[in-house]
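User: Here's a chain of 119 residues. Predict its fold as tokens.
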Amino acid sequence: MNHPQTDETKRTYFTQQLQAYEQNNRPIIYLDESGFKSHDYRPYAYAPKGQKCFDTHNWQLKNMTNAIGAIHNDQLFSVGLYDCSINSNIFHHWVKTLLLPELPQNSVIVMDNATFHKV
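Assistant: Prediction complete.
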């Protein structure tokens, strides 16, 4: 399945750029955020035999712990845990205090288009 905004030309260009950075020995750093609720774990559900169980979940609920982290060479580093929503101030603080001190020199950072990344 493809996302409706998929652009193969942009994807090809992105892949070529990453390969060029790697050929020039520039570390590629991937970063992202995620949230979780430690007290809402539900390991079981019920459905008629032979059928999958489907349900809905409000991912925008409050009281979540949000994590920001970076990966380099399949190793997670610079992890920050926040008991609040991630916004541009939190993201900037994480970059300044946790990511930059551990960032390999001459790195290339890959991230998604989250609004707070653009600030």
